[in-house]
Write a structure and sequence with these properties.
Blueprint (H helix, E strand, L loop, with lengths): L1 H25 E4 L2 E2 L2 E2 L4 E4 L2 E3 L2 H7 L3 E5 L4 E5 L2 E7 L8 E2 L3 E12 L7 E7 L5 E8 L7 E4 L3 E5 L3 E10 L7 E10 L1
Parallel strand pairs: 9-16
Antiparallel strand pairs: 1-4, 2-3, 4-5, 6-7, 8-10, 10-13, 10-14, 11-12, 11-15, 15-16
């Protein structure tokens, strides 16, 4: 009787182990690189098809991921957002001297907005990661495109490095902000 249990247990473990080896060979972890940056979760390859995490892909593309639970459909939307930086004399700029205080405004042109948004904001992030709000507003009507010129901001570029101007949107009041455009300034 004891021999039958040992034989049955050995057979069960052998089959289970073989199944795991087969399953492992049927799916394979893959590295996914988008615009030069590797997704932290990567993806998997199964039966010749690649599967990647949509949220990470959307974030890397600076796009919005919309999930419709009823239809089980994921939509990735990438609006066109162009930003220009202006000094008070209306000249554009893209670099500054470290340690200088500069007054500027941001002109943003947004089009191809295929999903309704609740609000948007423009921030500047210094090299240490600290954010400063430049402009924030709630959408008052549904638009597929709009233009915006922020108020002048007097900003001190205290340290050398990369400063990022980011345009972010959120779909509803409770959602997280999603960066959909970024412009980098270098302070030397």
């Amino acid at each position: 009787m004891k021999g039958k249990k040992v034989l049955l247990l050995t057979l069960a473990l052998t089959l289970w182990g073989g199944t795991l080896i087969f399953a492992d060979s049927a799916t394979q972890a893959i590295r996914v690189v988008v615009n030069g940056s590797e997704l932290s979760d990567g993806g998997i390859m199964s039966d010749g098809k690649g599967y990647i995490p949509l949220r990470q892909l959307a974030n890397q593309l600076q796009a919005v991921l919309v999930w419709d639970e009823n239809t089980k459909k994921a939509s990735i939307t990438k609006p066109n957002v162009h930003m220009f930086l202006f000094k008070p004399d209306k000249s554009t700029f893209g670099g500054v001297d470290a340690g200088k205080k500069v007054t500027f405004s941001v002109f943003a042109q947004v089009d191809s907005l295929t999903t309704e948004i609740h609000s948007f904001k423009i921030t500047i992030t210094d090299p240490s990661g600290r954010d400063t709000l430049i402009h924030q507003d709630v959408m008052k009507s549904k638009k597929d495109n709009f233009w915006l010129l922020s108020e002048d901001l007097k900003y001190s570029f205290d340290s050398a490095g990369t400063y990022s101007i980011r345009f972010s949107i959120r779909l509803s009041a409770g959602d997280d902000w999603v960066v959909v455009s970024e412009k980098n300034l270098i302070a030397n």
